[in-house]
Structures are given as C-alpha cells and as structure tokens.
Amino acid sequence: MAMTGKRRDSGLVKAMPLLLPAYAWLTLAIFLPLSAMVYFSLLTSMSPSGQSATLTLGNYATFFSDPLYATLLVRSLELGLIVTLVCVLIGFPAAYVLAKIFKGRAREAIFLLVILPFWSNSLVRVFSWSMVLREGGILDTALNAILPFKVTFDLMYSYPAVIIGLVHSYLPYMVLTCYLSLQAIDDALIEAARSLGASRFTTLRRVIAPLALPGVLAGSALIFIPVVGSFMEPRILGGHGGTLYGTVIEDQFTAVYNWPLGAALSFILLAVVLVILLVSAPVLRKAA
C-alpha cells in the first residue's frame, strides 16, 4: 500500500508541469471574474458619474422582498427540468443508435448532423427558429402547400417555442455524453442478456440503462445548469411571455444598468444550482 501511494505521488509530481498551465488559466478565468462580480453585488450603485458607492447587502435583500424574482426562478428551474427531460428522451435513443447500430460511414454522417449546430452562431440558430415557427414562416407555408385545407401554425412568442430552441441548442451534449457511456458497454453483455431470454426492453432496463446512467447524468448537468440561466432563447422566441430569471439578470446589466442587483441575482442563481447539486450528490455518486 505504501509503495502504491508513493507511485501515485510520484506520478502526480511528474504530471504537474503539464497540468499547471491549464489549471492556472482556469483559476484566473473563473475566480477573477467571480471576485469582481462579488464586489459589484455588494455595491449600492454603479453610477457612471463617478459618485462613491458603499457596501451593502440590500441587493440580496431585494430578491427576498420581491416575490417576482422567486417566481421567475421557479419558472426557470421548471424550464431546465423540462428541457433536460426532452433532451434525454430524444438524445439517449439517438446515442444508442450511434453506439450500437450504425457503423463506419453511416455513423460518421450522423455524428456530423449531431455536431452541426455547433458550427453556427447560437444567435443565428435562434433566429432561424423564429423564421420556422412564426405564422407565414417556413413550416406554416409548407403545411399549407401540402394539406388540402387552410391551417395556421404560429408558435412564436410562446413557451413551446422556447423549449424547442433550447432543446436544439443543448441536445448535442446529451447525445455525446450518452454515446461515450454506451460505447463503453461491452456488446457481449447485451448478447448474454438476450441469450438468457431477456426481452429487448428488459435488456435496456436491467443492463444498458444502468451502465449508461453516468453519461445521462453528465449530459443532464451540462444541460440543466445553463438552461436555468438562459436568456437569449426566451428573449427571442418567448417574447414578453418568455420573461425568466435569466432575462431579468440580462436586463439589469444591459437595459437598467443596475449591475449590483444583476450580480446579486446571478449569485443567488449560482447558490440555488449548487444547493441542488449538493442535495443530489449522494444519488449521483451512487448511480455513477
């Protein structure tokens, strides 16, 4: 045991020159902006006229005194859960097909389609959905060209439009993380379950799903956290009905110029997400 510990310490020492630049950069890129935002959140104001500002906790108290912020935060958490669930329902089967059914060039072609959204700007993707979902848009025109009767298809400025835009933006994360977990499952385990008389559904439930669960959880975390604070898709596709916690934070920085309140609301969101992760950590650790 002692020799094993010494070997691990020796390996860590040898790896430090390679790890240090990346971790130093991550430390600077994460903690310096966070430190600045902590300072901003404690200021009474950020007046461009140069007036002095004092430190206060009033920005955090605003969240608890106005129930609107808590309501919007709950709506954002619900949106994160819905988008994550939809991504699991769509992404897991797609990842299974990629990992266990398609081979060679077919797999490469499907992979290209999966990562294709990353090749375009996120703002362009959202605006493209506005041209598809609006009345008189691409989908509305196509339906009226095919169907013998007149239909009106208009999902713009609605909650479903926000969900569609967010799923399109974050679905690749679920597909890729699930693919890595499914690819690591030995095909012999699946064949053994089928040879012992297990149905396809039983094999999926008892063999494939438990082994692929780490990938599902990783993808869920990568999707849920940014979706809760999203503001671009709700702003463009949801309109006034898409007002969520993230859009309110954006307004504080870009429209109202109330950076202290925006920073405080951001840290409250960060704290809520961290609490959710801490509470679910035992379940996630057991599943992984």
TrEMBL record:
Organism: Jiella endophytica
UniProt record similarity statement: Belongs to the binding-protein-dependent transport system permease family. CysTW subfamily.
Record's GO cellular component terms: plasma membrane
Protein name, entry field: ABC transporter permease
Keyword Transport belongs to the record: yes
Signal peptide: none
Cross-referenced SUPFAM superfamilies: MetI-like
Predominant localisation class: membrane
GO terms, biological process: transmembrane transport
Protein's cellular compartments: Cell membrane
Entry's transmembrane regions: 20-42, 79-98, 110-132, 157-182, 203-225, 261-284
Domain ABC transmembrane type-1: start-end pairs: 73-280
Alphabetical UniProt keywords: Cell membrane, Membrane, Transmembrane, Transmembrane helix, Transport
CDD domains xref list: TM_PBP2
Membrane listed as a keyword: yes
Topology relative to the membrane: Multi-pass membrane protein
UniProt-listed Gene3D superfamilies: MetI-like
InterPro entries on file: MetI-like, MetI-like_sf
